[in-house]
């Protein structure tokens, strides 16, 4: 990019994950001059940055791919839950097949943007000081664009190496024969721990809150089997849009409290054996709204999990008698042999509730119960999810107000996409949209299709400016909070609630239903895009 006015485009998409890539395709197909930039050297979004050992998706084939037949007809996966290498290859396939490469500039990081009311344009700055102007600015940053590394005293004195899972070295990193310490036991911590246990001289897992992980039941997939299953793909992709999580099925209609013990256990057992997140998204309807219903699921999970932990002394730390939070109110990650690794002689668990971290010293991590010697520290400590990717950039809207300021007391956005005071900006898969609760490609398609229609409508009517109305934004933001209050999500401290980050305002960060969201945005479109001021 040369930073001259010839860089002008109608729509600038930022981010080459599912949302950005799909939107680029849809906009170009509609005749809109769209371009895409991404800081990464290759497409894949989260699968570019999170290339740590064991990183893989928690949605089974074919849920985590785009529904366009030209993309899936001749694409074959190797595993039921593909890993980051395969996912990156898939993104290359998508860009090839949809001929997107000429419209993408990789290795270009957006650092900020300023709205110019006179020219009705966004002036976007990049890491190398270049400028790109665009009528529409469309950030598609994903939910995990800003890694969270907790402030630990003395980290700069550490003699070994440390990395956050979300910024893993692209060239790879061997853990063989090393003394590895992993801080954090979310999805990322579980995945790295399983790999580290197989090769590290010693692995210490530092756990603050036990993860309520579910068995993945990984499988190698054959091409023949996938060919047969492709007969059902259209139906599966249609169904995906009609569930609350963007998966193949939704929860069952019944309450866990309205059935007898045997019926309840039968459903639990069926979804447990099916594997993956099914025990979470295809369970009783009141699992995430009624504490007593939830407790049945927790007890089932605890007993199943304890049966796999050989050392009874670890039961209370890894699978406590009482739930640390209602089951499923923090994202339940998938595991393959996580509970078994703690039987290995080279693996130990440190419960940070009993031995909090005091700081880092050259030799390792100092806890209240002594030193954990290590030469590699893995921060699997999560992300400033949703809003962090947007607010870490200097985005200045109307009246020179920054987005970080506008969201100082919490995120507010109409339809989880447009912000009052920030004309012609629409972000996808971000805060107050279904992102986080939704399977990524499902939300990317629903939001991408809607935004394409919106921009085409503006263009067809000779309009060049949109802005979310303050009242519409207020109502949407309040509605997400109100729906959240009817669920058990506020009962956990989690990235869903924003409070995994010290000082971040507490609010349900995502809209908890794909189908509900989809219906509302369709209705907004059918009603002349109510809630927007168009000019
Ligand atoms: P998560 O799920 O946010 O997990 C982060 C983990 O790091 C979690 O166990 C945290 O404990 C722990 N953590 C965070 N800060 C600290 C400090 N200061 N000390 C000790 N432990 C800490 O992030 P992931 O990357 O694993 O997964 C993110 C999503 O990606 C996941 O939900 C899937 O959707 C895919 P806590 O639970 O807060 O006590």
Automatic annotation (TrEMBL):
List cofactor names only.
Answer: FAD
Return the InterPro entries for the record: FAD-binding_Monooxygenases (IPR050775), FAD/NAD-bd_sf (IPR036188), FAD/NAD-binding_dom (IPR023753)
* Superkingdom to which the source organism belongs: Bacteria
Q: Alphabetically list the UniProt keywords.
A: FAD, Flavoprotein, Monooxygenase, NADP, Oxidoreductase, Plasmid
Which family would the database say this protein is a member of?
Belongs to the FAD-binding monooxygenase family.
**Name under which the protein is recorded:** Cyclopentanone 1,2-monooxygenase
Q: Which GO terms describe its molecular function?
A: monooxygenase activity
Entry annotated with the keyword Iron-sulfur: no
A UniProt-annotated Pfam family: Pyr_redox_2
All copies of domain FAD/NAD(P)-binding, residue ranges: 12-227
């Amino acid at each position: 990019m040369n930073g001259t006015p010839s860089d002008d485009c109608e729509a600038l998409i930022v981010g080459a994950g599912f949302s950005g890539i799909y939107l680029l395709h849809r906009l170009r197909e509609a005749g809109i001059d769209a371009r895409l930039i991404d800081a990464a050297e290759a497409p894949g979004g989260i699968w570019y940055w999170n290339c740590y050992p064991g990183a893989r998706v928690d949605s089974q084939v074919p849920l985590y791919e785009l529904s366009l037949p030209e993309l899936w007809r001749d694409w074959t996966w190797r595993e039921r839950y593909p890993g980051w290498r395969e996912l990156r290859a898939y993104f290359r396939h998508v860009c090839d097949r949809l001929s997107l490469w000429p419209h993408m500039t990789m290795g270009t990081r957006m650092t900020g943007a300023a709205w110019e009311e006179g020219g009705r344009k966004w002036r976007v700055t990049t890491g190398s000081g270049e400028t790109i102007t665009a009528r529409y600015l469309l950030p598609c940053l994903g939910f995990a664009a800003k890694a969270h590394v907790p402030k630990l005293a003395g980290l700069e004195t550490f003699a070994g190496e440390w990395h956050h899972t979300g910024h893993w070295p692209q060239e790879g990193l061997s853990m063989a024969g090393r003394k590895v310490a992993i801080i954090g036991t979310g999805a990322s911590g579980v995945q790295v721990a399983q790999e580290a246990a197989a090769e590290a001289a010693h692995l210490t897992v530092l756990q603050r809150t036990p993860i309520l992980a579910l068995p993945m039941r990984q499988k190698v997939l054959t091409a023949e089997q996938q060919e047969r299953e492709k007969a059902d793909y259209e139906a599966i992709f249609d169904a995906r849009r009609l569930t609350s999580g963007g998966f193949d099925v939704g929860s069952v209609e019944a309450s866990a409290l309205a059935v007898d013990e045997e019926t309840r256990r039968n459903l639990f057992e069926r979804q447990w054996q099916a594997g993956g997140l099914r025990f979470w998204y295809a369970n009783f309807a009141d699992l995430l709204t009624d504490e007593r219903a939830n407790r049945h699921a927790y007890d089932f999970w605890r007993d199943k999990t304890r049966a796999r932990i050989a050392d009874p002394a670890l039961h209370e730390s890894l699978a406590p008698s009482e739930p640390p939070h209602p089951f499923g109110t923090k994202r339940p990650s998938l595991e393959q042999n996580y509970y078994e690794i703690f039987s290995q002689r080279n693996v130990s668990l440190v419960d940070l509730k009993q031995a909090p971290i005091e700081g880092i010293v050259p030799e390792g991590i100092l806890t209240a119960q002594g030193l954990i010697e290590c030469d590699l520290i893995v921060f699997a400590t999560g992300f400033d999810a949703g809003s962090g990717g947007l607010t870490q950039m200097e985005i200045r809207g109307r009246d020179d107000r920054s987005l970080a300021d506008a969201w100082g007391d919490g995120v507010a956005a109409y339809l989880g996409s447009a912000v009052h005071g920030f004309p012609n900006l629409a972000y996808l898969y971000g805060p107050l949209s279904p992102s986080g609760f939704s399977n990524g490609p499902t939300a990317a398609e629903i939001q991408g299709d809607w935004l394409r229609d919106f921009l085409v409508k503006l263009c067809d009517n000779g309009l060049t400016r949109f802005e979310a109305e303050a009242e519409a934004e207020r109502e949407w933001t309040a509605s997400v909070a109100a729906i959240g209050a009817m669920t058990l999500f506020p009962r956990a401290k989690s990235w869903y609630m924003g409070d995994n980050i010290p000082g971040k305002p507490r609010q349900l960060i995502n809209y908890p239903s794909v189908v509900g969201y989809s219906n509302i945005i369709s209705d907004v479109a059918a009603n002349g895009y109510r809630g927007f001021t168009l000019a």
